[in-house]
Amino acid sequence: MKVLTVVGARPNFIKMAPVSRELQKSMTEVIVHTGQHYDYELDKIFFDELQIPAPEYHLGVGSGSHGYQTGEMLKKIDGIIAHEKPDIVLVYGDTNSTFAGALGAAKMHVPVAHIEAGLRSFDRRMPEEINRVLTDHISDLLFCPTQAAVRHLAAEGITEGVHLTGDVSVDAMKAVAEIAEKRTDVLADNGLSKKGYSLATVHRAENTDSYLNLSNIVDAFSEIGDVVLPVHPRTEKYLKKFNLWDQLADHVKIIRPVGYLDMITLEKNARMILTDSGGVQKEAYILNIPCITLRENTEWVETVADGWNVLVGSDKDRIVGMYRDFRPASSPKNVFGDGNARTRIREIIEEYSA
Ligand code: UD1
Ligand code: UDP
């Protein structure tokens, strides 16, 4: 049997690493890289570190508007599906690459499997929310990380092909836990001590593309002071465009985006995490690090319900106030599964295609 996996952005690569290893035990996997992310630190570093096989196809789409990106991907995916004739097309998460892969397959009448199905922020202004909803509605197999995700799908009338597998991010973290434990160079190289800093990531369009929101975040980080920020290229572009880079660099340790192993090490040893990333909110929860989320909503609602994540948006005073006061009261529950989601996913795909 043949699976065609379509990926293109950093979080896609990280999630696919454990699943790809698992699938290749019993089936042929053809990897299509759309080229949505292309800088070494957002792309190849993950293939190298996590030993993901080199993609058979690279579409070289690059950056552009949502319409451009999705359209270019679709044009190229069509021909690959026609040539490869896969039994199933597999996509991850909520990026433009996810939706393009799913739509390309559905239009060619090839079953679609979606990993991280059923997530909802209920905010249609987020491009990712559109990608999630549309991908789920054209998927045949929907692998849900949580009970809430299963409920969201049911509320939209999707019950067939829905499987609660647990989250593959737990599998990914487990796979590198031991190595990340020993890897402290990223701390030493940046003059950091364990629990002596807070880690931040910012890249959501609603934060980066708005002067008001980005300047509020820069002011908050400047006041907090002990922040380390592996900067996403989108954020770097807007910090420079809005003349906020120098102020931030005066107060905060800005570093290049890091690989997954260094990122887990940075997260694990941080006092606090401030982020607008979906994946980083979840990792903070799994690692028991308090998380302040620079958004008004989240699709990872369990982390908030459990008291380990707070939503503060981009208001400077709310960010700084929460940074001072937020101390989770109880231990987090284990809501994201046992780290064996990949095995369930392989078995379900095998059964479906038998
Ligand atoms: C995309 C995803 C987002 C995900 C994020 C992970 C969509 C709609 N968004 O957002 O869900 O959280 O990836 O990081 O799919 N750029 C570079 N080099 C690169 C890639 C991007 O410089 O290798 C710059 C370009 O200026 C580009 C901008 O970043 O225009 C945004 O890139 P894009 O892939 O469109 O969206 P992300 O913000 O990365
Ligand atoms: N990540 C990383 N290096 C970084 C920043 C993030 O490896 O410099 C990892 C992070 O640990 C998580 C994933 O990237 O596994 C999250 O991706 P991102 O924040 O880009 O996207 P999102 O999850 O918001 O879609």
From TrEMBL:
Record-listed E.C. numbers: 5.1.3.14
Entry keyword set: Isomerase
Top EC class of this enzyme: isomerase
Listed GO MF terms: UDP-N-acetylglucosamine 2-epimerase activity
CDD domains documented for this protein: GTB_UDP-GlcNAc_2-Epimerase
InterPro entries the UniProt entry points to: UDP_GlcNAc_Epimerase_2_dom (IPR003331), WecB-like (IPR029767)
Ranges of residues in domain UDP-N-acetylglucosamine 2-epimerase: 24-350
Protein name (database record): UDP-N-acetylglucosamine 2-epimerase
